[in-house]
UniProtKB/TrEMBL annotation:
Family under the similarity heading: Belongs to the citrate synthase family.
PANTHER family per record: CITRATE SYNTHASE (PTHR11739), CITRATE SYNTHASE, PEROXISOMAL (PTHR11739:SF4)
GO cellular component annotations of the record: cytosol
Enzyme Commission number(s): 2.3.3.16
Domain of life: Bacteria
Organism classification: Bacteria, Pseudomonadati, Pseudomonadota, Betaproteobacteria, Burkholderiales
Molecular function via GO: citrate synthase activity
Keyword tags: Transferase
Protein name, as recorded: citrate synthase (unknown stereospecificity)
Pfam family, one: Citrate_synt
GO terms, biological process: carbohydrate metabolic process; tricarboxylic acid cycle
Top-level class of the enzyme under EC nomenclature: transferase
Transmembrane segments: none
Length: 272
C-alpha cells in the first residue's frame, strides 16, 4: 500500500501524539524523569522522594518527605485478617505467581476496603472549603450532613474494629503537630480531623478516634495531595505488606487454603 509522503508524515505525527506525557522522556541512551537524568536520581533519591517526583511538579523539602514517608510506612500491613492480605495468601495456595497474588489483593482495595483515606480527605477538603465563608464548626456540620446524606452514617477514617486507639494514628498526628510547630504544614487538616473526633463523640456518646485512614488523610492533605491520590498512595504502601505475605505463604506452602479451616465450616441458610 503506497501512502503519499504528506499523509505518512501526518500519520506519524498522530502516532507520536497518541500518548502525551510530562513524566518521562526516553530516547536511545537517555531516560529522564521530569527532566532529571535517571542516573542522577539512582543512589541520590529515596523512594518517598521518587513517589513525590512522579506525582508532583513541585520540589519537596526534607521535612515534607519525612511526613510522606511516615504515612507510607504506617499503612504497610495490618495482618492476614485484612481481606487484601488474606486474598494474597489464598491466591498463592491456589498456585498463582506473586504478581497474580498481588494483583488479586490490590483489586479489592476499592471504596470499602482501601478507599477510606480518599473519602476522608475529601471530607476534610469539603469542610475547609466551606470554612472559607463560615466558622469551621458550622462548615464541618454542613460537610458531615452532606456526606452522610450521600454515603450513610459511617464516617471513614474514625473508629477501628480492633484498636480502641490506633497506635499508628497517635504517632502520625504527633509528627504532624511537630511539623506544624516548625512551619512545615499549616495544620488545618489535622484541626478538622480532631474536630470530627469531638463531633462524633458528642453525637454518639462514644469515642471514635482517628484511625490510620484518617491520619494518613491528614498528612496527604497537609502535603497538598488530591483525595484520589490518597487511595493510590495507600495502595503503594499496602502493596509492601501484600508482597511480604504472599512471599511468606509461598515459603510456608499449603494448597487451596480457604478463608477458614475446613473443620469450622460455615452457615447454610437454604432449604433443608
Amino acid at each position: 500500500m503506497n501512502i503519499p509522503y504528506e499523509k505518512a508524515f501526518d500519520l506519524l505525527a498522530q502516532v507520536k501524539a497518541w500518548w502525551t506525557t510530562r513524566i518521562i522522556d526516553i530516547r536511545p541512551g537517555v531516560i529522564r524523569i521530569k527532566g532529571r537524568p535517571i542516573e542522577t536520581l539512582i543512589g541520590n533519591v529515596g523512594y518517598a522522594q521518587m513517589v513525590w517526583l512522579m506525582l508532583r511538579d513541585d520540589e519537596p523539602t526534607p521535612a515534607q518527605l519525612a511526613l510522606l514517608e511516615a504515612a507510607l510506612v504506617a499503612a504497610v500491613d495490618h495482618g492476614p485478617q485484612a481481606p487484601s492480605i488474606s486474598i494474597a495468601r489464598m491466591s498463592v495456595t491456589c498456585g498463582v505467581p506473586l504478581n497474580a497474588a498481588m494483583a488479586s489483593a490490590i483489586n479489592v482495595l476499592d471504596g470499602v476496603h482501601g478507599g477510606a483515606g480518599e473519602q476522608c480527605l475529601q471530607l476534610y477538603k469539603d469542610a475547609l472549603a466551606k470554612a472559607a465563608t463560615q466558622p469551621l464548626e458550622q462548615a464541618l456540620d454542613a460537610a458531615l450532613a452532606e456526606f452522610t446524606a450521600a454515603h450513610g452514617k459511617m464516617i471513614p477514617g474514625f473508629g477501628h474494629r480492633f484498636h480502641p486507639v490506633d497506635p499508628r494514628s497517635v504517632r502520625l498526628l504527633a509528627l504532624v503537630d511537630d511539623a506544624q510547630r516548625h512551619g512545615v504544614v499549616a495544620g488545618r487538616h489535622a484541626e478538622v480531623g480532631r474536630l470530627i473526633e469531638r463531633t462524633l463523640e458528642r453525637r454518639t456518646g462514644k469515642q471514635l478516634p482517628m484511625n490510620i485512614d484518617g491520619a494518613t488523610a491528614v498528612i496527604y492533605g497537609e502535603l497538598g495531595f488530591e483525595p484520589a491520590l490518597a487511595r493510590g498512595l495507600f495502595i503503594l504502601s499496602r502493596s509492601v505488606g501484600i508482597l511480604a505475605h504472599a512471599w511468606e505463604q509461598k515459603q510456608q506452602g499449603g494448597r487451596i487454603k480457604g478463608p477458614l479451616p475446613p473443620a469450622l465450616g460455615y452457615t447454610y441458610a437454604g432449604k433443608h
